[in-house]
Every structure is written in structure tokens, then in C-alpha cells.
Amino acid sequence: EKHISIQRHLADLEKLADLKEGEFTVAVSQNTDLLVTDEKKPCPLCPEDKFRACYSHKLHRHLQNLHWKVSVEFEGYRMCICHLPCRQVKPNVVGDQTFSKMGAHYHCIICSATITRRTDMIGHINRHVNKGETESRFITVPPPKSSHEVLKESATDVKVLPNYSTPQKTDSYFNPKMKLNRQLIFCALAVLAEERKPIECLDAFGATGIMGLQWAKHLRSSVKVTINDCNENSVTMIQENCQLNKMKVKLNTKEEDNDEAMGDGEENTDTIEVTKMDANVIMHLRSFDFIHLDPFGTSVNYLDSAFRNVRNLGIVSLTSTDISSLYAKAQHVALRHYGCNIVRTEYYKELAARIVVAAVTRAAARCNKGIEVLFAVALEHFVLVVVRVLRGPSPADDSAKKIRYLIHCQWCEERIFQKEGNMVEENPYQQLPCDCHGSMPGKTAVVLGPLWSGSLFNTGFLRRMLFEAVQYGLDEAQPLLKTLVCEAECTTFKHFSTHSPCDENKQEECGVYIKTPNTSAESHLVHGKRKSEEVIRNAAKRQKSENSAEHPAFYYNIHRHSIKGMNMPKLNKFLNYLSEAGYRVSRTHFDPMGVRTNAPLAQFKTVLMKYSTPTYTGGQAEGPLHLPEGVQVGEQVQAAADGKAEDAEFLEDDKSGVLATLFTNEYPTHCAA
């Protein structure tokens, strides 16, 4: 039986003290004297030496104020504070006498433990709930519904614990904010499934199994899904979620292989393999066509084993959530994990993506494999990199050559990759397009890296991903994929058009389908050594064509380089102005106000200055800044900054007062003089 301190209602507690239900309330309403008719009664939760027997009205207040109001509630039951000799406190020795005192405590309704403090009791109950232990051994009534919560995403149901959003306190971590990440990975897998069928794919860190369940539910017989996790509770939850979605389960562990069929399997006959082992172990033991890594934090510890057995032309995707190190908030951690020196820059998100790709490239090269970056995404919560694996020492060498250092100017934030070669240059500052080193004192630039210097996007692959997103109704991924396609082509939305997926005859252009003369099932499987020379030639041609039209590296933030005292043009209009000036230009997903262009920073600022308007004009329409003939913007700014004699004459001719206003804000001392 449960302890007497655990009750549902205050009336139940009063019954233990032989108080009739509502006796005190009725007596007060009738103005009767309880002292005359009532007998003294003891408290059922206090010893006689602590609380002596008293009349009903006093006992009622005692039970209500000292026991019921400080109770801990759990699923309709109240665990009241108890003063009985259930828990003995350490005896106090004073001289030759020993005093043993009985302490107040609570009785746990689940495990019958005794806890002294109320806050500790609440934390104790919460730990039971987090572990899924909600059934009391004392309650004889039917237990309430399970504390598991069922969430739905992309027509897939998953059962999670109440604290599913805290990865350090639960075995079934599920982050709803990563829905976009899961949709992007699904689109990449769907594109690979169109190339060859069936493909073996691995979700190395299953947690709830949501990602692998979505793969199997939508792609069905095109994929053979394996969900792995090293935690026993997570494996159990993955099996329950497979049963919830009517999937068959094949359970494999290290020691033994057991086949278990869970669910009736009438609606879906696909089988999901669930394994319980370390991610490095399963990737060393077996080969896969598609591997996704999503550990808690960095994924560099699993890259070597991921590239060890991945099949040729397969795909490896990894999600890194250690954004504090990648986004240059913890630079020493980035140096420790990735071997990169970084600082906080305006393009820090693309810098993070290139850091991860560089680590992936080095891991693949150690296994004599090269990579082809399909896309890289860096958002608020994660960095996602998806690469295609190219076997052989030649692709490995070509990929390793694209890892270079970056020279970054800390004054104007101009940047450029170091030239190839091992020879030491006498003046590395000459590689930067800016002249900050000559005009500013001291050292003005830092060397960052090593970083990936190649392209971050494959246009053909992204277009096919967009087609798959439309086909499967993934609404959240479609806007991002459109932005990625425009960013890969370095064009604006104005010139963007979505084409239907290319046919097999255009495989060299898109690099998606593999056409072989034999139409049998075996001829479409390009696994391991079963690869034709035609496929390798097509991959080489595809890489060559893509490298010739690479997008410009990095981007500029328009707010970062705005002119003080001037109103900038709208971002889309500014993109048109840069395009009219003859430069390639596009927006970027890394920064909503970022501009990816091949224009140098000086030309970028010149165009921005030309089409900016003074602040004080307010309602003046956007347009170019009209200046006296024969005078350039850069010359005016430099002249005003230097304070030469001809500046005064020029400012006298400044009828519009634009530059005077600008220089008053920038150089108040010179203007006052």
C-alpha cells in the first residue's frame, strides 16, 4: 500500500484523523462550539511529541497549512510532508548525551524513497519522468496515459520523451528546429536514389529514428535504411517508432543478430535495420552508398571511418552543431578540432562551411578518395555539408590542392586566397587588392585557414533537389533551394528558372543519371569496383565544366560597407546596379543582407556610393549621386580626408552640400577648422 502521506484530496487526509468530511465547515456555519462537543485528536503525520492532540478546528488548520499546502503534486496525487519516524537523521552528540531527531521528509510515490526538501523532491520526480518511469508501485487504479509524446513531421510519427529538446538530459533527442536540415538531406538522398536503385543508407546517430523513418516511408523500395545508435534506450525507442509507423524491424547488435518483426506490415512491407553499436564500428564493418553523420557537436571524430568504406560516387552528409567554434566564438576550439586559425569576420558563416569542407577533404584524402562538394549550408543552428565521394588517388590529389590559406585585411575586410605554390613571398600584402598596408600603420592582415577554396555548390544537383522538394511537397526547403541555385549560378531571382529534371542523355551536364548499355539491374549498380570508364570520364567532364563557372568566393555585407550620412539603395536595386556595371552578382543564404559578387571591394564601395542618397533629403528618390564634372567619388573622399588646399575650393563648389554633410559627420575636426 502507498504511504499515508500520499493522498488525492484534503478530505482523504482528514479521514485519517477521524475528521468527518466538512465537519469543521458545517460547525462554523451553524455557529456551534466544537470545544464542547468535540474530542481532541492527534495528527496522523506528526508524532505526539511534535504535535499534541487538539480539537478538530485546530487540527483542520494544521493539516491544511502545514501538510497539504507544502505537498508535491504528481498525476492527481499529493505527496504531503511527513514528520513520522520513517527517516532517521544523524544523531547529535552533545557531551555524553545523544539526541536523535526525526526530520521532516516526503515519500516518493514512484520509488518509495524519502526526500527531505521539497525542491529536491520535485527534481526527483522530474528525473523519473525524464526516464519514462511514471507508473507508481503503490497505485492500484489503472495508470494514466504514458508520458511519451507523439510528434508528427512529414507524415511520420515519432514517440519522444517530454524533455526531448535537451540533448544532455534525454536519450531521445528531437529538435523541431532541424526540420529544414532533415528536408535537405532527404532531397539529397532522393536525388541519389534516382541515380541507382536500391541504395544502402545509414543514419549513424538515430536518436528517435525520425530521419531514417522518413527515408523508408517516402522512398520505400529505393532505399535500404539502417538506423544506428549506441544507446540502448534510443534503440528501444527507434523500434517503437518503427512499430508506430508500421515498419518491419531487423535488429542487429554486436554480439548476436536477431530478427524481430514488429508491426503488422500490411500497409508497408519495407524493413528497417536497427543496430546498436558505435558509429565508427558500423562504418568500418560495412559499406554504404549514403551516410549521414549528426553527432552532438563536431563530427571530425567520425570522418575517417565514414570515408573508409563508402562506395564510389556515394554521398556523405554531415551536420555540425558546434557553431561556437565554427562561428569564431571559441577560436581555440576550432584550432583544436579543425586545425584552423580563424577570426570573426563579416563572412563568418561561409568561413565555417569552408572549414568543415576542408576537414572532410583531408579525411577523404587519407583514404585515397576525393570529394565533389554538392552543397554547403550554414544557418543559425547548424552547418550542413554534403559531398560526393570520388575514389582514386588522382581525385584525392585534386581535392587536396584546393585547401589553401586565406589572407584577410582587418581594416577593410578585403580577402583573397593565397596563390598556389610553396615559395615564400617577400611581401604577402601585395596579393590583397586593397592598399591598407601602405596607408595604415602596423600589420593590417591575418592569415586564416587552411580552408576549402573550391566551389561550395553543384548547380545540377541543386536543381534536381529542388525538383524532388516540389515532388514530395517539402515547402520549407523550396525557398532555400531556390536561393542556393541562384547563388551557385551567381545570378538574381530575376533570371532564375526551374527546369524539369534532365533526361539520361544529358548526364554529362547534370551529372545525376548513369547511362549504361546494359539495361539489367546489375548494370545500374555502380558499387566498389563495378564501375565503367564511361562513368569516370563523365564525372571528370562534369567537374571540369563546373569548375569553369565557379561562383565567386565569399560575399560582402551591404550594411557593413555603407557610407555614414547616406541612405543606401534597396538591396535588389543595388544588385541590378552591380550587374549593369558588368559584374556577376547574387544574394546568399549565408547572410540576408549579403551580396556575392566578383567585384573587388573598392568597386563595390564605388557603386554603393554612387547610388546612395544623402540622409537629410529624406524623400529624394534613389539614384546616382550627381557630382561636378571631372571629379570622381574616390578623389573627393581622399581629398577631404587629407585636408589639402584644393579641398576648400572643391567644397565651395559643392552646391548641393552633399559632401559637406558627409565630411562633417566623418571629419568634424577638419570641418570646424
From TrEMBL:
| Entry coiled-coil feature ranges | none
**Where does the record say this protein resides?**
Nucleus, Nucleolus
- Its domain of life? Eukaryota
Q: Which family does it belong to?
A: Belongs to the class I-like SAM-binding methyltransferase superfamily. Trm1 family.
- Reactions performed catalytically: guanosine(27) in tRNA(Tyr) + 2 S-adenosyl-L-methionine = N(2)-dimethylguanosine(27) in tRNA(Tyr) + 2 S-adenosyl-L-homocysteine + 2 H(+)
| Pfam entry (one) | TRM
In the record, biological process GO terms are: tRNA N2-guanine methylation
Matches recorded under PROSITE patterns: SAM_MT_TRM1 (PS51626), ZINC_FINGER_C2H2_1 (PS00028)
* One Gene Ontology molecular-function label: tRNA (guanine) methyltransferase activity
| Lineage of producing organism | Eukaryota, Metazoa, Chordata, Craniata, Vertebrata
Record's keyword terms, sorted: Isopeptide bond, Metal-binding, Methyltransferase, Nucleus, Phosphoprotein, RNA-binding, S-adenosyl-L-methionine, Transferase, tRNA processing, tRNA-binding, Ubl conjugation, Zinc, Zinc-finger
Q: Where is the C2H2-type domain?
A: 108-128
Any GO CC annotation of this UniProt entry: nucleolus
The name this protein goes by in its record: tRNA (guanine(27)-N(2))-dimethyltransferase
Q: Which PANTHER family does this entry report, sorted A to Z?
A: N 2 ,N 2 -DIMETHYLGUANOSINE TRNA METHYLTRANSFERASE, TRMT1-LIKE PROTEIN
